[in-house]
Amino acid sequence: VDCSTGLSGRCDESHRQDSVNLLTFILLLTLTILTIWLFKHRRVRFLHETGLAMIYGLLVGVILRYGIPSTIYHNKTPPSCSLKEGPVSTLLLNVSGKFFEYTLKGEINSREIHNVEQNDMLRKVTFDPEVFFNILLPPIIFHAGYSLKKRHFFRNLGSIITYAFLGTAISCFVIGNLMYGVVKLMQAVGQLTDKFYYTDCLFFGAIASATDPVTVLAIFNELHADVDLYALLFGESVLNDAVAIVLSSSIVAYQPSGTNTHTFDASAFFKSVGVFLGIFSGSFAMGAVTGVVTALISFFTKLHCFPLLETALFFLMSWSTFLLAEACSFTGVVAVLFCGITQAHYTYNNLSEESTKRTKQLFEVLHFLAENFIFSYMGLALFTFQNHIFSPIFIVGAFLAIFIGRASNIYPLSFFLNLGRRHKISGNFQHMMMFAGLRGAMAFALAIRDTATYARQMMFTTTLLIVFFTVWVFGGGTTPMLSWLHIREIWCKVVVFRVSFTLKGDNLLSHVSLQDGPQHEGGSKTKQESAWLFRLWYTFDHNYLKPILTHSGPPLTTTLPGCCGPLARCLTSPQAYENHEQLRDTDSDLILNDGDLTLTYGDTAITANGASGGHDGTRGEWGGINGKTEAAPERDSEAREHETTSRGTRLVFPVEDHA
Amino acid sequence: VDCSTGLSGRCDESHRQDSVNLLTFILLLTLTILTIWLFKHRRVRFLHETGLAMIYGLLVGVILRYGIPSTIYHNKTPPSCSLKEGPVSTLLLNVSGKFFEYTLKGEINSREIHNVEQNDMLRKVTFDPEVFFNILLPPIIFHAGYSLKKRHFFRNLGSIITYAFLGTAISCFVIGNLMYGVVKLMQAVGQLTDKFYYTDCLFFGAIASATDPVTVLAIFNELHADVDLYALLFGESVLNDAVAIVLSSSIVAYQPSGTNTHTFDASAFFKSVGVFLGIFSGSFAMGAVTGVVTALISFFTKLHCFPLLETALFFLMSWSTFLLAEACSFTGVVAVLFCGITQAHYTYNNLSEESTKRTKQLFEVLHFLAENFIFSYMGLALFTFQNHIFSPIFIVGAFLAIFIGRASNIYPLSFFLNLGRRHKISGNFQHMMMFAGLRGAMAFALAIRDTATYARQMMFTTTLLIVFFTVWVFGGGTTPMLSWLHIREIWCKVVVFRVSFTLKGDNLLSHVSLQDGPQHEGGSKTKQESAWLFRLWYTFDHNYLKPILTHSGPPLTTTLPGCCGPLARCLTSPQAYENHEQLRDTDSDLILNDGDLTLTYGDTAITANGASGGHDGTRGEWGGINGKTEAAPERDSEAREHETTSRGTRLVFPVEDHA
What we know:
By secondary structure, chain A is an alpha+beta fold. In chain A, 62% of the residues lie in helices and 8% in strands. Chain A is built from 25 helices and seven strands. The longest helix of chain A has 35 residues. At the A-B interface, helix 1, strand 1, strand 2, strand 3 and helix 4 of A face helix 1, strand 1, strand 2, strand 3 and helix 11 of B. Strand 1 of chain A pairs parallel with strand 2 of chain B, so a sheet runs across the interface. Chains A, B: It is found in: Cell membrane; Recycling endosome membrane.
């Protein structure tokens, strides 16, 4: 309600109501925070904070629905007027010569007309679904991208991309077709009279394929479980959110509408694939470009003297990615994800130390609040959403379909990936990935975005139940499942990174190379290709992109061919010469976040006790190589033999082997 | 537009338009940030960042207004329908059997009907005025309160409250009456035909009395100008924002409307005063209570082990203050201000070190973004707001009125205050306070809140011009004005704080007392009274509130009378015993923010050169007493004589004297 118009009584009332609603949610979040603290304090692990937020949401939903006597509703149908034209966005109302402006809120079902005002209280606590997409999801997704700077993620990139793209597509297709069968069954037994198209089923497949193993990952982090499995799960869930969004919107484009009743055929399928690729690559490009622009701005200005300005700029540029993508009809959330990854990879290196902390903390808080808000809202929505359609057959079918869909993503793909992977994804890991297929914020946001038709309302209700079930049951069962699959009882195998140090003046120069365990020397062609592709990208990134975009990396003068000398000198920052060949330029590979570091410590302890650890007997001290790379350097006389420079040092990263 | 209804084409279009608009503002802010950096880098001081934001806003406004060809507007009057009843909040539209829901946006002027759609582009970049009050102002005001933890503020509290309450009321009344004269003049010469009530004039007085010397304060901070003057200006501007809001809303309550045409008489005046006191004290209480509740929560939980949870809770509780006050029909902004002050005074002491940084930085970023957004928007609004009414007589009258209003606030009150003050407010300080009466975000937000009538539109236009003029001219003129008034060339006088240290075990115990310079020993009764009041509050706060609400302060067992022993033991935290008599419990008085510390350093340098510094010859090293109180301890053999405990140390706080 626009309150600049003197209708202040009504306006005040509506404003007060809005305040009360928001206050309800803040109270919910406060309660959740306090209980989370209690759980963390007591080390309770059977219920994660998101599950908790849902429970509190449910409670408040029940109170709002049944606790408030219905007598306070003034049962009145609002006045209506007729027009011959279709719905217009702006309508004028002439009340005895005075004109009032009305804006279109939406179509309402004929059965709802009589309780438009009656259910006002419940409607009030229902947010515009676009709030989820435009305000709450972006910080969550950006934070996921921004905290993705993990060595293990990049090492498993091939598998992650396979699961996220191919796997999600398979899962979507499988769930869609199974649900189409369920729908046919329902129509056969007379349980479904409204329209339910094949595209609706595929749309449901896309929604239900977006996994969000936030609970599982939190527990992984606490228990110091396997790092590669963590990377696989985290990477897959981040990317498959993006894939699910784009998939669902390219399916919706072929939804039969009033005039367009042809079914989803082969040509529509290929068109959908085209739309998918267009939107995905467009959003990807947009995110990467804004990230690069931010890196360039922070590179060419001395903004790092003013952390406040730097943080504000970083925040604004990241937000503008979202808006830019939305304005160009791409997908903002996907753009924000890749913007986050780019910012972490390039801009992060240019920020002052103060700003790196500030930006991380800022997005951490935003992410935390947004996520818990969404989960609280989900709990609330089960009771306050007006158009729930509980269809037992559909719900049971959906539960079966999502398990089959997840299974046909994980098991076949793992089999094919294992043909090419050096470190096989063991059977237990596959079961764990299957188990970790929780559905969360993204599935909910996609489902609530459009609840206009009967089919969509049924899907929304079912999605909500799937989220509740998976978060509580699978989320709560993570700890026992990990023990049962023996994922915590790990044997260590050592992958050796060779780091050679050279003392040159006062600078400790270093060279890092990856050396495989001898048992993996003879790899198949696939292995070598993917390694070759990765190495090509790494070299290009390290030699050209990093020096151009950040203050780290070797100076361009040494990496560009001689003919580009003047250009190189002009683009190289003075700091690059200082950094030249220092360990700093390897931080993209070696930097370990707190989580990682803990994991490494955890593993080491086990190795030291377990004694089955690979070819590495003598263990030195753990310590930072420099301020930035907190890895575990270790001098080893064996390693020195293979090295080209003097003063060899081996970095030992224990990797688990379950074969 | 609710997009869950299948009207997706229109919805997409509107969403894209929204994204473009927000993108415009983000671009503006990005440009502003980069230019601010350039200015800071080059030490340009004639234009502050807020002035800059306004200039960029103006430029974009010109482009939007004149740069986009008007041919793209589709000139169409929206369809209208008639009803006999008054405006309803929800209207149904029946289009051939389908029902659409419309919500009331507001009344529109009959002259606007034909360009409702035409000016859609310009309307789109116009935000709902409530956005300013509910989203942008709260972080600005909270940050002001939260960063108010300054010794100098509390030392000048009496004067600040006088200027803020009495001064703002005087200013409001003077401006209101002068403007009523101007309005009468305009009516006499036939320049004003629409209604313009006396309450409208008083309302304008309230709007134009809210000062916002953000520019001046930034420059003060950079130039290390006088600390007492800084405290006076800062404190006055923070509190008078609150006063202006409450004043304006209590005046509006007596605005003659259609049925109520009686003028603003004496009874209405006293009722207004009553409403003012009610709203103000209610908001104050609400803010203080939420602050105290937050302090209690952080006191009784061990939340400080999880800085993320702590920060999130802090943020949510502070936000809930705003909503709670709005829900109870108090003023959210005022509540947030006092919540900020309470949080800084109590909760801040319970937070982990990590969280103290996080919360400060979080609110700093929010404050920065919100403030620059408002100033950009002001620039934009000059060209994109649809209903500007430029009335030369009113504008000239308003400029004269605000200067007279400010003068009748500062000079008479300073005269009376000087009768009671130990450290007189010198003539030059008074001129500077007069000069620093910029109008900013609060005046704008109050003016844009209601632009329904002709009078309000004229006021809005005038307020906008006043903000532009004062920010650019007065803001830019601060540096020359400071030099001209010789405020930077200061003589120092030393106030001696006696801190006595006792070594007890390993703990360095201390006792702080304030000792006045001998020349001030014989003060007037007023002085003693205010000192007595302040001391009473300080003792109560220090002995009872701080120990109950925070982990600092002496244990209650020592401050409460013996009979309350069990209660005291139960309420005292174990830490309090450890802290007992340590310097930590003095941090509310002694803690110096970065700004203060710089100021102190600045002053010292001057004292050392100026040589007129008081009775303190030998100067020791400056250094932190402990991690928290970065004040200047100094061992002095003279001081030891007056002390009860051994190992005396004097804290020297140079204070300027212009008498």
